[in-house]
Amino acid sequence: MFSFGTRNVGIDLGTANTLVYIDGKGIVLREPSVVARNTKTNEVVAVGSEAKDMIGRTPGSIKAIRPMRDGVIADYETTVAMLKYYLGKALGGHSSRPYVTIGVPSGVTAVERRAVIDAARVAGARDAYVIEEPFAAAVGAGLPVMEPTGSMVVDMGGGTTDVATISLGGIVSSRSIRMAGNKLDESIMSYIRQKYSVLIGEQTSERLKIEIGSADVEAAKDMASTTVRGRDLVTGLPKTIEVLAEDVAIAMKDVIAEIIVAIKETLEETSPEIAADVIDHGIVLTGGGALLKHFDTVIAEATKVPVFVAPNPLDAVVIGTGEALKSIDVLKNN
Ligand code: ADP
Ligand code: MG
After folding, report:
1. What's the per-residue H, E or C state across 241-266?
2. Alpha helices in the chain (DSSP H)
3. pLDDT above 90 for 302
4. Ligand 2 centroid, distance to 249 Cα (angstroms)
C-alpha cells in the first residue's frame, strides 16, 4: 500500500519536549522543544538540548526560542525548522517522505490543528494526521481506551495540564489548564527571589523542582536541601544559597492546588458510570509532571481515588501516537 521505504512516524510536539517514534523501531529521538536562532540572519544556530543549554546565556546576536506555547504552535516558522531538523535526524538518510501522526491538545481550535498539519507537511511529511494528546497519553500508558469502561488520565507537561476521561475509543470529558511545569518553575523562581533576595534562572529553578520538589509540603519537611547559584539582588553579585525542599514545596503549592481543582471538576462532570470506573481503575498520571514527588499521593488524598504514575510518563504521548500509526488508514478517513 505504501511506496517502498515510506515510514510511519509519530511525533509528540510538546511545549517542553519533542519525541519521535518510528513504526517498527520505537522512540528514536527525545529533545527539548527549543531552537536557537541568529537574530540578525534568522539562521538556525542550534536545535534541542544544545539550544536549551543556551537559554539565559545567549549573546545579543543569538536568541533561544521555544516555538510551542501551551501545547500549540506559537512560532510557526521556528516550529517548521525544528520539525524538519528532527525528522531528518530521526529518519537518517531515509529519503522518502514519511506519514506523520502528531499529538495535539484536546480542545485546540481548527486553526491550531491546521497549523500543526501544515507545519509537518512543510517540514517534509508526505501527509500528517493529528491525534488528541490525552487519548494518545492514555494509549501510551496502557489504559483500556477501546473498552466500554471509563479511564482517567492527567497529563502534566510544560505548558498545560490536560485532564480527560476516556471510554470506547473517545474522549468523554476533558479540561486543559495553563498550569504545569513552567508555572511551577516560575513560582519557585519568584519564591526564592522573595525569601532570599536572589534571582535564579529558569534552568536552575527547573533543577530545584526535579531534584527536591514535592507536591506535599509536609513530606518536604523531611527531604534534603540543595545549593543553587543566582544573583544577589542587593549586591548584584553571584551568590550561592541553600534552598530547602520545603521552600520549593511552598512555592509550588498554589499551582498544585489549581491542578487538583481541575481534576476534581472533571471527575464531577463525568457520568456516574464513568466515575465508578475511575474509582475502580484509578487515575493515571503522564507527562514530565507525573514524576514530581508526592504528586500522586496528594491527588489521591484530594479525590479519594487511587492514583498511578504511568510506566514511562514522558514517553506516553509519543507511544500513543505510535500505536495510532497502526491504524493510520482509519485516521486518514477522518
Ligand atoms: P510537554 O508535553 O509540555 O513537552 P513533558 O511531558 O515533556 O512536557 O514534561 C516536561 C515537564 O516535566 C517540564 O516542565 C519538566 O520540568 C517536568 N519534569 C521533568 N522531570 C520532572 C521531575 N522529575 N519532577 C518534576 N517535573 C519534571
Ligand atoms: Mg505533552
Report:
1. EEECHHHHHHHHHHHHHHHHHHHHHH
2. 49-52, 76-91, 110-122, 133-140, 181-196, 202-212, 217-220, 245-269, 272-281, 295-303, 316-325, 328-333
3. yes
4. 23
SS3 call for 118: helix
pLDDT in tens, 251-280: 999 999 999 999 999 999 999 999 999 999
Ligand 1 pocket residue status of 159, Cβ below 6 Å: yes
CA 28 to chain centre: 17
Identify the CA nearest to 32 among candidates 56, 63, 68.
Answer: 68
How far, in Å, CA of 103 to CA of 217, rounded? 34
Grid coordinates given for 245: 525542599
**pLDDT class for 331, splitting at 50, 70, 90?**
low
Q: Is the pLDDT of residue 301 over 50?
A: yes
Per 3-state DSSP, the chain is made up of helix, strand and coil in percentages (nearest 5) of: 40, 30, 30
Query: Cα angle at 317 between 186 and 50, to 5 degrees?
Result: 55
Average pLDDT over residues 146-166: 96
Residue 299 CA: distances (Å) to CA of 132, 223, 260, 261, 307: 24, 20, 6, 10, 7
The region of weakest confidence among 91-95, 121-125, 183-187 is 91-95
**Burial letters 306-320, b for 16+ CB under 10 A, else e:** ebeebeebbbbbbbb
Strands of the 26-32 sheet, one edge to the other: 26-32, 17-22, 8-13, 99-104, 127-132
Strand partners, 267: none
Ligand 1 contacts CB of residue 32 (under 6 A): no
Q: pLDDT tens across 110-153, in order?
A: 999 999 999 999 999 999 999 999 999 999 999 999 999 999 99
Best of 211, 291, 312, 315 for a ligand 1 pocket test (most atoms within 8 Å of beta carbon): 291
